[in-house]
Amino acid sequence: AHEGILRRQSLRESAARTYARSLPIVPVRARGLTIEGADGRRYLDCLSGAGTLALGHNHPVVLEAIKKVLDSGAPLHVLDLATPVKDAFVTELFGTLPREFADNARVQFCGPAGTDAVEAAFKLVRAATGRSGLLAFTGAYHGMTEGALAASGGAEDVRVTRLPFPQDYRCPFGIGGEAGARTAAHWTENLLDDPKSGTPAPAGMILEPVQGEGGVNPAPDGWMRRMREITETRSIPLIADEVQTGVGRTGAFWAVEHSGIVPDVMVLSKAIGGSLPLAVIVYRSELDTWQPGAHAGTFRGNQLAMAAGTATLAYVRENGLAERAGVLGGRMLASLRSLAADHPCVGDVRGRGLMIGVEIVDPEARPQGTGTEPPPDPVLAAAVQQECLSRGLIVELGGRYSTVVRLLPPLTLTDEQATAVVDRLADALAAAER
Ligand code: PMP
């Protein structure tokens, strides 16, 4: 069955498949961190639905919530009508948001994907400001629809399909510590304030508090506060894309809490649907200049996703899983950093909470004390991913050159599982280096 399914799907499905190409597995059952394939093999899943599964696969509270809706006879398709299931979701969601933000916020159901919510955010700030340009950052990833794609930077393989808006501008994203962050902030300020730059006042700025697909690049808290200041003093709405960083992943329920900034718009998806498709924007109510019908869509507010999402948000909140992700992630980062000493192919280990990246570089070309960066090694990174897979560990590659091994385990990860993940990755690094 395993081979037949793989063969048939590779014949019939689009050449654009990504995960299936590097992960030739046929999942038939899953629970928590574990996926079982049709061939009977078991894997530790550190891809977690591209960062979606805050509670891992098929968590009992999520399954229970879904069954409850199914058994209740509630309509499954409700457009944007008011329902008790939606009421519970919005109440739980607003309860988790930073107080200063939630007290004066509106929610717009978009959907069903993160990219839909990004488009809605762009539309909203354009409508509210009457301006059209957007500020986005190199290395950003916001989705695969036209606006989101135009705002995404650094993904070589999507460059040909990117359709930039005429007035889009990109700023360098300072990931080189606080000094790099200061330079990036100055660059942004100069661009906005120098009339010779020709930059028209933008409709908004979109940023990820930790870039995910871009290779796990945490934005320094100081830089986040500078971006808030820069946008606030110029009346530019700030959009925080928390599609991947949200729901506890980075060690705070929402990643903007680390820097304490209050954005104007938050883009939320992935974990908020408890493994089912759901996407919303939450925004400062002054921005709500939309007329009825200004934003629509058939699949908004899927009842099953809202119920699964409510259960997930409540479970993360009640069990302190954000704090847990911070502590456990810190421990994993420390063990991975100590591994780096034994593995010259590890160029960098970075992350926040349970959003971790291990950058693979060419061990041969690693310069000795020259202060220059060793070159990324995509072939070796792909080999590490395959060695992980053969040891029953599913990881994804990210970053501009697909050289960052990304770990996005569920927040329910146990200490023993965390150790197993690091051990398997260590073995895979050793095998790939040989
Ligand atoms: N924003 C961020 C930060 C993301 O990580 C992603 C998905 N990886 C998206 C937006 C797009 O979400 P979707 O794939 O559901 O359209």
Kindly list the characteristics that best describe this protein.
alpha/beta; binds 4'-deoxy-4'-aminopyridoxal-5'-phosphate; 7-stranded mixed β-sheet; single chain; 15 helices; 2 domains; Aspartate Aminotransferase, domain 2; Aspartate Aminotransferase, domain 1; 434 residues; 4-stranded mixed β-sheet; globular
Structural commentary:
Its EC number is 2.6.1.76. This protein has 434 residues and is of the alpha/beta class. The chain folds into 2 domains: 170 residues, Aspartate Aminotransferase, domain 1, CATH 3.90.1150; 245 residues, Aspartate Aminotransferase, domain 2 (3-Layer(aba) Sandwich). Helix content is 40%, strand content 16%. It is built from 15 helices and 17 strands. β8 and β9 form a beta hairpin. α4 packs antiparallel against α12, α9 packs parallel to α10 and α13 runs parallel beside α15. The longest helix is centred in the C-terminal third of the chain and has 20 residues. It is globular. About 5% of the residues have low confidence.
